[in-house]
Amino acid sequence: MDTTQRTxxxxxxxxxRRELLEAADRVVLRDGPGASMNAIAAEAGxxxxxxxxxxxxxxGLYAALAKRHTDALLExxxxxxxxxxxxxxxxxxxxxxxxxxxxxxxxxxxFLMHPAEGGQPGDAGFDVGxxxxxxxxxxxEELAEVIxxxxxxxxxxxxxxxxxxxxxxxxxxxxxxxxxxxxxxSRAELVRSLADLLWGRLAAAGDRxxxxxx
Amino acid sequence: MDTTQRTxxxxxxxxxRRELLEAADRVVLRDGPGASMNAIAAEAGxxxxxxxxxxxxxxGLYAALAKRHTDALLExxxxxxxxxxxxxxxxxxxxxxxxxxxxxxxxxxxFLMHPAEGGQPGDAGFDVGxxxxxxxxxxxEELAEVIxxxxxxxxxxxxxxxxxxxxxxxxxxxxxxxxxxxxxxSRAELVRSLADLLWGRLAAAGDRxxxxxx
DNA sequence: ACTAAGCTGTTACTTGCGGTAACTGGAGTG
DNA sequence: CACTCCAGTTACCGCAAGTAACAGCTTAGT
Lengths: 214, 214
Known about the structure:
Arc Repressor Mutant, subunit A; DNA-binding; transcription cis-regulatory region binding (chains A, B); TetR/AcrR family transcriptional regulator (chains A, B); Tetracycline Repressor, domain 2; 2 domains; 2% strand; DNA-binding transcription factor activity (chains A, B); homodimer; Homeodomain-like_sf (chains A, B); disordered N terminus; HTH_TetR (chains A, B); mainly alpha; 2 strands
């Protein structure tokens, strides 16, 4: 059992793992997140216990699957966030990047965020909430870091940045989710509206006739 | 089968339904959202098929359960939203109402929003994502109405109000979720930070040294 | 008073999924 | 050849959702 031997085995196992993940991806994107382990195994051309050897349990598989997509999304967001441009432009570009991603692959988005909606009615789905929350948390933390790093917020800036990081991510997520479902306007309009909100247009707006406004 | 007869039966059925919902509530709050129909039936002192007669399927039961809590929360929010005060104060009071609610009854909150986290590891929970989303949607729509009604946003105000409604609700939700998990600061501080964000402090803040800030 | 609904409630079952134990066959190694 | 790994299989367990079929009680109709 020398080192090269072990490396070979690991390599092989890793390649297998990737194949399995790709098969799982296909099934989940086709059948929704209620996809059974049996179905995934069948798609991969093997049987259940192998999946369990590789991923431990269904949670492990889904976590691995979610991690792939999450990492890809975060990569794209980081690029928009770190681009050399002024603040408003970067905010808009980050929002647009996120929205473009969920628009381009709504299946992936639904898997990451709203796992159960793909299943048949009456199907007791597998709860992927455990894996969607981390996505938003990670985005929130990353955004917080960027804010803390580049915006001068005075005393208590670190905590403020974290609140804002999570808050802004949540705003983006909820608005995106609603938009994806109803498509009430173009992506560009949505981006602009959200950026306007962040830019204090709510505070600046006047009251409507009839008492103090919201 | 005259009318009074039918009314009596309906009354009885409604009362029974309420009792069942209360039992379900107890179980879900104690055992987490992975609670089985058997357990709920046992708590109510009856057996499964009766639950199915009343609620159709597990989704129906959970929907009814969620509706109760959702309605209660929305009621409280409406009160804060409609209070006679100026805008910033009402925004803060609404945020605080929401946060106070989730702080006071985290179990209910977790049931509505993150159903699976209460289960044992390895437990394939029942996905309540289908019922949490409507909560946020409803809050978003209500807020949108209030904004549209009372804030003067110029042309395209209706659409803008809806985007903002959902966006603000998402911000509140995400920040609240994070805060509830980590408790990094007091509720009042969180409210203040979020209101500041909404009041355009992000736009107003200066860049940190070293290039354009976020 | 006797029967026929129609209600609430039960037991006992099916189906389907996550997860596991135990066996099988082949590839490399002394 | 015997030994050990390891990918892979079949066959099973446990458990939860959901259902069929049956049992008793109350009430209406004649």
